Amino acid sequence: MPFSPRTLGNADFTLPLDRKKRIPLWNEESAALLPPTRAGLIALDSAKGHAQPGSVLAVPTGGWCATSSINYPVPMWSDQFRAEAFAQSGTGAVAQVALVWSDDSAQNILRVDTGPEVNVAEWRRVTMPAAAPPEGAKTVRVALIARGGPLNFDDADLVAEPPQTPTVRVLTNQAGYGERDP
Asked: pLDDT by residue (tens digit) across 107-124?
C-alpha cells in the first residue's frame, strides 16, 4: 500500500474551540453543494469520539448540513483522491462525505464529488470512490454531510490513492516559475 500522508489538520476534532468559538481548521459549509436546502447547526462534541473523545456534531434542521475542512492545495503526488471519516448517529441519520474542488482563488467551485449516503447507527467508516481532480482545480476540501438527524463525525481524512499514471514533475521554489511559466 503506498504512503498517503495525513493531509487534514484537526481531523480528529480534539483541538479546543478558538477565541471566536470556531472549530480550528474546519468551517460550517455554506456553499450550495447539494439539493435541496442547507440548514442546521455544527458544534464540537468533546465527550463523544471514535477512537478518543472529540468529534464534530452536525444537526440538520432542513435538507442537510455539513462541515468542511479548510481548502488545501491539491496534492501533486497522486491523480486520484477520496474522502473518508467515521460517523455515528443513534437516530438513524444518514452520513455522506464529499470532495469540493475549487480554482486557484478557492472562490469558484469547479466540481463536487460525493460518496453514497450511509446509515450509521454505530461508529462506521464512511468513504467514497476515488475521484480525479477536474481541470483547473488547485484546491480541495473535505465536506462531512449529515441528513435526517443529529450525527457525529470523527477521524476525517483526504486519502491520496496510487496514481493512475506515474508522472514526474519538476518544481522549483523560486518566484516567476510555475507549471505554465518558462
From this structure: 889 999 999 999 988 999
